[in-house]
Amino acid sequence: MQPVTLPEPIAAYFRADSDDPQAVSTCFTKDAQVRDEGHTYDGRAAIQAWKDDSASRYRYIATPIALEKADRSHVVTARVVGDFPGSPVDLRYSFMLERGKIASLEIGA
Question: For residue 21, what pLDDT band results from cuts at 50, 70 and 90?
Answer without folding.
Answer: confident
